[in-house]
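User: Here's a protein and a ligand (zinc ion). What would the complex look like?
Assistant: Let me lay out the input and then the predicted complex.
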Amino acid sequence: MAAAQSDRDLPSTLCSEFLNFSAKDTASRWLVAPDLQQELYRHLALYVPRIFCLGPSRGSSREEQREEQREELACQLLLLAPLEWLLLEEDPAAGLALLQEKNLPSPLCGHVFKVGEPTYSCRECAADPTCVLCMQCFLGSVHKEHRYRMTTSGGGGFCDCGDTEAWKKGPYCHKHTPTDISRQSQEDPVALLPADMVARGYSIFSIILKYAVDMLTWEQEDQLPEGLAPPEREDTYYCMLFNDEVHTYEQVIYTLQKAVNCSQKEAVSFATTVDRDGRKSVRYGDFQFCEQAKSVIVRNTSRQSKPLRVQVMHSSVVAHQCFALKALSWLGQVIQYSDGLRRLLCQVGLQRGPEGENSSLVDKLMLNDSKMWKGARNIYHQLLMNSLLMDLKYKKIFAIQFAKNYERLQCDYVRDDHDREFSITDLSVQIFTVPSLARMLMVEENLMTTIIRTFVDHLRHRDLQGRFQFDRYTAQQAFKFGRVQSLIGDLKYVLISRPTEWSDQLRQKFLEGFDAFLELLKCMQGMDPVVRQVGQHIEMEPEWEAAFTLQMKLTHIISMIQEWCSTDEHVLIEAYKKCLSVLSHCQSSLPDGEQPISLSLAGHCVETFRYHVSQDKVSIHLPVCRLLAGLHVLLSRTEVASRFPERLPLGELSPPLLIELPLRCLVLCAQVHAGMWRRNGFSLINQIYYYHNVKCRVEMFDKDIIMLQAGASMMDPNHFLMIVLSRFELFHIFSSADCRKRYREANKDVVQQNNTLIEEMLHLIIMVVCERYVPGVGQVEPFDEVRREIIHQLSIRPMAHSELVKALPENGNKETGLEKVIDSVASFKKPGVTGRGLYELRPEWNKYFNLYFHHYSRADQSKAEEAQRKLRRQNGEDTALPPPLPPPLCPLFGSLVNLLQCDVLLAVEGAVLQWAVEPSGGCWTESMLQRVLHLVGMALLEEQQQLENSNGDDDVTFNYTCKITRPGEAPSTSGSVLALLESLQNAPHLEVHKDMITWILKMVANIKTMRERTSSTSTVTVSQGQGLEETVRDKDKAERKRKAEMARLRREKIMAQMSEMQKHFINENKELFQQSLEELEASTSAAAAENSPPSLELSCLSQVSVGPRRVCGAERRQLVTCILCQEEQEVKGHGKAMVLAAFVQRSTVLSKNRHRSLPDPESHDPVFMHPDLSLGIHTASCGHIMHATCWQRYFEAVQLKEQRRQQRLRGHTSYDVENGEFLCPLCECLSNTVIPLLPHSHSPHPSLDHPGLESWLKTTSQQIAALHSAHRKQAGDVTEGAEAAAPEGFRVDFTPQNPFSTSINEMITTFSMSTYKVGLKVNPNEQDQRVPVLIWSTCAYTIQSIERLLMDEEKPLFGSLPCRQDDCLSSLARFSAACWTAAPLSIIHKHFTRLFSALVPDPQVENTPCILDIDMFHLLVYSVLSYSSVSKLDQTGQTGVDSAHLHLLHLVTVAHLVQILLTSTTEDVCMEQDNTGSEEEQLTCKLYSTIRQHLGSVLPEVTSGWQLFHCVKVGILPFLRAAALFFHYLNSTVPPADLLVAGPGQWEALCSYLSLPSNLLQLYQSHHTLLEPLIHRWCSHPSVRQTLQGSGVIIRFPRVSNRLIELPEDYSILINQASSFTCPRSGGDKSRAPTLCLVCGSMLCSQSYCCQTEVDGEDVGACTAHTFTCGAGLGLFLRVRESQVLFVAGKTKGCFYPPPYLDDYGETDQGLKRGNPLHLCSERYRKIERLWRQHGVAEVIGHAQEANQTLVAIDWQHL
Ligand SMILES: [Zn+2]
Ligand SMILES: [Zn+2]
Ligand SMILES: [Zn+2]
Ligand SMILES: [Zn+2]
Ligand SMILES: [Zn+2]
Ligand SMILES: [Zn+2]
Ligand SMILES: [Zn+2]
């Protein structure tokens, strides 16, 4: 039982047939065959199994790809080419071209979208949001200038360009605009083809399509259809694994490794393919062999769920299925060339088969859809889109077939477990959204009814009353429920565009659909009822989400159905009747049972049900009521009510019945607020939340208010209010004084509950009367409603665009109407570099503010109240917030105003005011009073309004002012409402409401005068009482001012007390680091004081930083304070060590060569830095200083804490303690080491010698020779010549004294080890010779990177660095100079001799790189720092190190000059220029010709000294600047004044500061006899010639600073780029998370199995892997699909960062959810760039993780 060896010879036998095979001859043979199908099948039977599926499929991609290519080629040559010949009767290439030329294409674009491709929709012109354009069409369309929306496609779907039904305007782009010659849509494109081709095409298409359909729907594993059986049958099988959505990747991978014994990599590859294509063969061999694998897989995956689907299939069956897919793709390609052929294929596909109805080939495919694997589905769906949906005639026929099969397809889909995008049902969006098709299907196929019925059929689980019952759902039913929801989406498509014209048939079918819809709503009416839980808390939270999901999904449908109704009177009337009758049916059981109770109050009586929300069942789901409420408003809006009252069943309406259920629901909310339903758990809280939420409220809460308004307008207002009182269970409180008393004595909870209920009830009354912004209720337009919504949102606070959008309900087109009105009410404030743009309400709209706006939550309300009062106070106004003037009501709702002046309300008002006058025992609240005052205000406004609009007194029906002057009736027998108000005006406990009461009383006075005037003269304006008003106002102002002053004094006193306490506290807790940050900044800058700008006097002198003439700026004592113990300490070499918290990291920020691979840590030789700076070590510090001992204690504590934390809960912190990381104890800045502070060096003694260059060179050479021989002797090598004579006083065996205390030495080792460890990525090893080099390296690299930053930001070289960087560089430089003390002297000597040999070639030193491969600044720093070790051996005391430093600087500068001249000669430098140059130019020329003498024609001839000199000057500047920084920090020299400012004059200052001649060429000229031989030896290094001739990377100077990559202005360009990006590993597959490296521009396939690689033995994602090659472990990326910046550091750390793209409203769109066009904000991008260049990314990650712990848990390494 062995695996059948794949027969690799087979292809080669096929090869010979390739050569002999002639497609043309085969085609001609077929042409004359009597039975083409038989002939074709014979051909396929012979060849298909010999081309496809010849062996095992492997996981490794290379081989697989080659195999695929071979199949592809053979398939084209042997199978498809003859078909093409047959079709065209000529060479296919020529024939197809001709076809295309003659084709008159339809103007449809039809571009099918790839996953992730950008799509555009115009918010102004698209018929619905599903109408989209491809990028190309969009850019050529008028919509580019409109408000558009951009999204990324989920794959599938196509461009609607050219579809006139999809666009209200501009349906064609430039490319697809129909021209005159393009075919009329009526003309048959088939007629344009030659008749014989039509005949041939017809038969070929019929045969091939049938073949493909048969093969794809073939269910036998071992047999083939008739005529296709292979001539010779072998025992070769495949074990085929199918995709399902149940098993995870990991499960599949694990199982495969077990079952087919493959590597993990192969298993991953198999799993990826199964997921992508839907199936994959995982084993090839004889039947037994495959069966065995199958059983293992089934066994392994059947434990928890149903097993993975596996089939053992004969290889010939698989082969034919493969070819069937190829054939379908081929058909799709061929029809692209000709619309005639396309139509022909459509005809073939839809032709009814022999089995009658629904038996065409397309039907067969559709009906088998759910049985096919993903790959097959994708290909045939694509073909359907390319053919049927692109042909207007057949699109219709196909639509009808689709509708006929609709129910069956949906059932299949619901049972299937694939996502909808892989189902044929997903095509509904392409068909139903075409309005004409949707209408046709509705009329002819009764589509609306079909969809709704199919939907209802799938939800079978009902209770006794036939209502849905979701809480009894099993997991499987719930899954089904999830899938069946897509039907609602289809219904939405059908309804999305309203008909402009109605036919009788459409009316009939719509109403039929409406009936079905009412049936659906009936099943929802009253579902999930709740009963108040008393005593015990509920045991299990009842299910509520399913019902609300359904409600949410249906919200748009309900609104759309109402819109449809509003366009036709007949339909509206019929729908109203139907709805009413269903409602009556639903409510038929309501009045049953007990006797009604009768209520009486204020002289009025009414009868009502005996029902208590707090005791009986109540449901929040009342869709039938609410639909009726919606239709009722439409009756008013369309004026149908007033025009055809006789056709309406108004008489059948019973207002008390209508309001009953909505009222119960509102009371339920009030009781929940009052805390009466606490024991019912979160389920109810959630339901109430969604009831009010913007997603549901339009068809829930809003409609309930409307229903109350409708009912109230048809009833006696007193009766209405009494019913409301009774449902709120408050009637007794207002009906008898007794009760009130009893209630006062009841327990506290009950009192509080009742208070809240009274508040809620008053609020409800306010809403019922005041909410008139629905067109039909009030006389308003739809945009008034939106505008009011916005005004109230902005009254809370200024808001961003997206916040406003979220607060507004969207319609079915995802529009809120916001844009139309926003600019009229608000002004836009642009964002800065952070934050977002905000809209602010214009002050003139403040008067529309209504404190009791119905969409405010309680929290919103109190925020808005506070904001508004504050605003008024700022404007010096009173703080009354009176109700705004409401719009007039529509006639149908006109009588609502009477609520305001009815007796029952007056009684309620009177009662509350009376309680306010004599508040006692907590059974009264200010909120109650406030609401009553609001109601009074509303009534007064109404009366004033009527007076103003009336001509005489007689048409004013409102006389509230009159009524409130009457004394109250029983039970509140006290004074009149007005009298009560007057007495409350000066009540001391009602200070807050004083302004409002004043406002009311003024209104009353005004109205009185108006009434008096109207009785005498005509209309009167309100402004009459202004004089009086003024004085009142002034008085109020003065009073307010006095109070404000008092408040201020009080505040100051408290502040003083607080600060006193604080001081005390600080004194008490000095050991603890409790001090504020600012104070400590001040104390640490004591260390920085030495760097404070020099006095004028000093800077006038010429400052020199290097050489014997240098002056040390700061000789005074250096005092610093430890942030941990607060003690001051002087920095001394022998003192207690002080350290600076620091962070060392590898860096590639300056790299000019990202292709260089990382050095091998073990063998890397760091002594010479290559000028490409491909990898450096950067050190940064937050500048906070501690005692070394204090820090050690702190760090130990951190370690201990971490150990304990790890034991408790596994997980990460934002810092990695094991790697020495900690957070600075003061500023929490990420750190991983400390730098010890060392004392300043002293000025050189003036008596010291300063030897000339020549003698110094001589001495040094002697010294080096002596060192060489000493080392040889040490090594025991005595064979070599005589001992070199050491110069006088030079003792090679001298051991200098260590100048530092042990504690400082200890810290020197600490920092050394950190740089060593981080820089080389190795374990600490104090013995390693490379340790000191790495410290010098970080010193040089950090200075270089800071120099670049200062240069690019055009900041002065000195004085502009922040303290912390200054401190860091200063201590770093001094530290580097001293670190040699920690290593054996001989090692430093060795380094120095090697470094020196690069300048003065030394035959005893090997492997010295050529000067083109050395970064000169690094060389300077290393040699200066290592020289100290040599000078220590000189016991003469004659010369100081300073002379040596100066000579080294001179030598390196000359070497750099030569380096620049060698590399800067490009063609453009050689331009002709006049020869009369300055001295500098002549000298440059001279030096250049010297170099050319050595290198000859490798360097071009240059005649222009000016050009050359310019190159030199520009090229060397960064070096000089860096050197100036270095010596400044090394020698603590005061910088010259010219370098403290940016701008001109720098060159001279720089040269003089460095003790260099300002004509640098002088350096060479004055010593040229000495230097000439050196230059000769530099140039004759063999590598120089090789590099210049192109064998190495030439680095040119100045090195251009690295920047992040350029990003396009328009974000969609990026999306488009990303959409065409394919995963580099899994051949041509689209990447799911394309991610762009911002440093180098690579696109990566992130967050995916396919692109994981191993780094240091761990699997990491593409991003993390990339950071190791591109950023030495640190990376900045843009996740393109998410529009999100990603920072990654190492394997475990990362964070997200806002992207530099903003929409027009100044907001980012992380996750691309809103789809507004996004544009690059360059300031934000520069900010990110600066962060990177300043090496601040790791710190940002640290802070982000510290602030947000969830970031720590993200699996960054797999991104
Ligand atoms: Zn297009
Ligand atoms: Zn187009
Ligand atoms: Zn447009
Ligand atoms: Zn300390
Ligand atoms: Zn700090
Ligand atoms: Zn990169
Ligand atoms: Zn990939």
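Summary: The two ends are 43 Å apart (CA to CA).
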